Amino acid sequence: MSHSVKNIEIGSSLVTILWDTKVESKFHYIWLRDHCHCSECYHPLTRQRLQNTYDIPDDIKAVSYELSGDRLIFNWNHQDHKSEFNVNWLFLNSYCPVLILQEDKIKNESSYLKLELWDVAKIETELPRIDYLEIMSSDEGIKKWVLKIWKYGFCLVDNVPESPECTQDLIEKISFIRPTHYGGFWDFTSDLNVNDTAYTDIAIPLHTDGTYFTDPPGLQLFHLLKHTGTGGITTLCDSFHCAKLLQLENPEYYEILSKFPIPTHSAGEENVFIQPSYPRPILNHNYMGELIQVRWNISDRSTLNLPLDDPELQIPLFYKATKRWNELLESNKNEFYHTLKPGQCLIFDNWRVLHSRRTKFTGQRRMCGAYINRDDFTSRVKLLNLDREDILATI
Ligand SMILES: C[N+](C)(C)CCCC[C@H](N)C(=O)O
Ligand SMILES: O=C(O)CCC(=O)C(=O)O
Ligand SMILES: [Fe+2]
């Protein structure tokens, strides 16, 4: 939706714009000058700021302005500089007050990048999946794939050649692999080759990986290459959906899961007090209070030994809240069972979708896969969707 300017009032340190929606925005001159996107101030290709913000004098002021159509030009009292803005850009980036959230596209439930939260009943009717060749043959295929992962938190890839090489080629269509102490592209079995229960045959409850990292892996891909025995079935769970259920049912439990810092350590380490340590809560939110990351791993939770405001109250509350949280995750409404098989890859958002190896397995079992950084996944989603006019810079 485009907006028009009804009135402009030049003040001593800011300009007030009255919009067609009858609301007013205030833009400080320093802000406007700092956000000048002319080719001297802002690299036209790399979209990076060139000007030094701190060369702008404190008393920067617009001496005049010109409004023609959707172009609004300010003439500054410094270096004879002009800054041209698109009025829609100003409306969407208004900060005093923030107006973008009033935009239909953001509120519109069917907005292009809206997450589709799911439970088992819903996801079984529309399993996100795509064929290997569609991904490998075009950017359109990659775009379709990453959008399914973005919206549903996971996606199956069918008809993948049953080799680690083809599996690595596939995941690298999204981005480069995130190396960790487990290696880059992993090809593993139950031989404790790495000191972690993933390298055994035991059951591992629903979890996210890397809760001991300041930046847990964004995506994780599995390709089961071989399994001669039984068991080891995978389950998935949309933790964002469960968080919504918990918030509705028990705001106090939601609150403590959003605040209580969890010490973690990777297998083999112990919880050594190395300052600054980075314990994070289970439910992590962005500056707008939106849930953006769940960190949940019972195996890697370390000793709860952090200073708390009221440990007598908080420790029992932590156990009650996480017990209810775990019940929601493992409810047969929310825990989706899926048997991995050679030729089919599973990729999932490790900040949102929990995974498990639900039961102990027997026999020979060989799995390969890799991690991708969250930022590299998000960047891929953005860059593959730049052609969409209707995507507001809201990621
Ligand atoms: C690398 N590979 C995925 C095979 C195993 C990683 C083990 C992850 C660890 N248990 C955690 O939950 O973070
Ligand atoms: O072996 C599996 O099915 C998955 C084990 C696991 O959770 C992992 O490797 O992160
Ligand atoms: Fe895992």
UniProtKB/TrEMBL annotation:
Its cofactor is Fe(2+); L-ascorbate. Converts trimethyllysine (TML) into hydroxytrimethyllysine (HTML). One of its GO terms (molecular function) is trimethyllysine dioxygenase activity. SUPFAM superfamilies: Clavaminate synthase-like. One of its GO terms (cellular component) is mitochondrion. It catalyses: N(6),N(6),N(6)-trimethyl-L-lysine + 2-oxoglutarate + O2 = (3S)-3-hydroxy-N(6),N(6),N(6)-trimethyl-L-lysine + succinate + CO2. Residues 123-371 form the TauD/TfdA-like domain. Its EC number is 1.14.11.8. InterPro entries: AlphaKG_dependent_hydroxylases, GBBH-like_N, GBBH-like_N_sf, TauD-like_sf, TauD/TfdA-like, Trimethyllysine_dOase. The keyword Oxidoreductase applies. Residues 12-90 form the Gamma-butyrobetaine hydroxylase-like N-terminal domain. PANTHER family: GAMMA-BUTYROBETAINE HYDROXYLASE-RELATED (PTHR10696), TRIMETHYLLYSINE DIOXYGENASE, MITOCHONDRIAL (PTHR10696:SF51). Belongs to the gamma-BBH/TMLD family. This is Trimethyllysine dioxygenase. Keywords: Carnitine biosynthesis, Dioxygenase, Iron, Metal-binding, Oxidoreductase. One of its GO terms (biological process) is carnitine biosynthetic process. It is an enzyme of class 1 (oxidoreductase). Pathway: Amine and polyamine biosynthesis; carnitine biosynthesis.
